[in-house]
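Help! Submission page says 'invalid entity' but I think these are all valid:
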Amino acid sequence: MHFHDILNIFQGLTTLFDSSWSILVARVGLILLGMALVYLGKKGILEPLLMIPMGLGMCAVNAGVLFLDPTTAAAVTETPVAPGALTHGTLFMAPLVQKTDNLMYVAQVDFLQPIYTFAFSNGLIACFVFMGIGVLLDVGFLLARPFLSMFLALAAELGTVATFPIAVAMGLNYREAASIAMVGGADGPMVLFTSLTLAKDLFVPITVVAYLYLGLTYGGYPYLIRLLVPAKLRGLKMPAKAIVKVTSDEKLTFAVVACAVLCLLFPSAAPLFLSLFVGVGVREAGLKYFVAFIDGPVLYGATLFLGLLLGVLCEASTILNPKVLTLLILGIIALLLSGVGGIVGGYLAYFFSGRTINPVIGIAGVSCVPSTAKVAQKEVSNVTPDAIILPEALGANISGVITTAILTGIYVTLVPLMK
Amino acid sequence: MKTVLSNARFWSAGLILAAIGVALARGAAAGLTGSARVTAVLAGEFLGLEGLLVICVGVSRRLHRAPPEEKSP
């Protein structure tokens, strides 16, 4: 037995030292980053439902690189491979394979390929997550206070709108700029959907950046609130209102009408609207078994595989893209501007309402449901424990989801028309 | 469906406004080119969304007019 035969037993290590320096450093860095994500997820600093599978996937895909046999290498690279050539690859998935024959071959070899091809790259997983969000939403909060909810949601879309020209100025094309601007909407499925539709080459780094930052909003937004809203205003008690019930008939009818109108206006985003309003409709129609199914296996199954696939997509050779640093900067700009816009909207509501509305509810216009509404309530309760702003905050939160979906539709419809 | 039918004015107005918006954005805009098309699409989308807002306002007004026995503390 020769020494190189022994090396081939531990191909994960052999391929590491057979790579260029940049790939070696990237692989080791991503393995460590994956471990860090698992740790932060366990500690609750980042969202554990996504970070645990994502971190593990990131570790495994960057550790488990091997030398592919010539047939598999030819299918993955989609070019002829000489018999003795050494091609690095993994047995997880090959996201860049396009041709049908190669896809069918790879799907039988790479265990995550079928889920990636038939559920992730066509946006199905994003739609499943959106269905789960729809089941959790109570649109009654929006129907009860439409002007306040819509106004705050629009104000909180500042990041989604303003980041687009900033991204273009930083050198991205219109499609890439629209995709990264959607991070300001703080809604993972919509970022995924937009980037898959408009900027497929960059959807991996955009989506990874989006989900990483979205996990941080729960930890970062309280500091933004404390910076921009003084304690006296944070603790403002809003006038108590009798709770009035929006009937399920009204909510169901609204869901049907809104679904039809929005699909007619934005057919490119119709899968998202259908998914959201199916969830709402099933909830308001009282179909408890469907609610339990969507709220349980569908939502959590989709979240699990979303995290896993995002982690596995973070293979060094896929994610190393010169634009990643630009995307990291633009992502944080988008979320920051959205938070600031929401709070500015909250201040405007405070002044126009005769100083009765707590400006903190503006942050709930950022559509990370229900995280931002909970953040708003928590910051208010820290100052005045018996101040309740959650109903108004939820109205803005739910409106934020719908306005972000509308912005997705606008970008997906209009950006391809721009030359 | 009683609560929806009792508010038929707002539901109808909202639906009509939304339909006009859809017709403008998807119908009329298709025959235009360049900035005229973009303008027509945006105007139609705005009208369509306004139609949904009218429906929301109608529900909100019904809630404010609701008699005390429909309200819970």
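Support: the input was valid. A stray whitespace character was the problem, and the output above is from the cleaned input. The CA atoms of residues 69 and 87 of chain A lie 8 Å apart.
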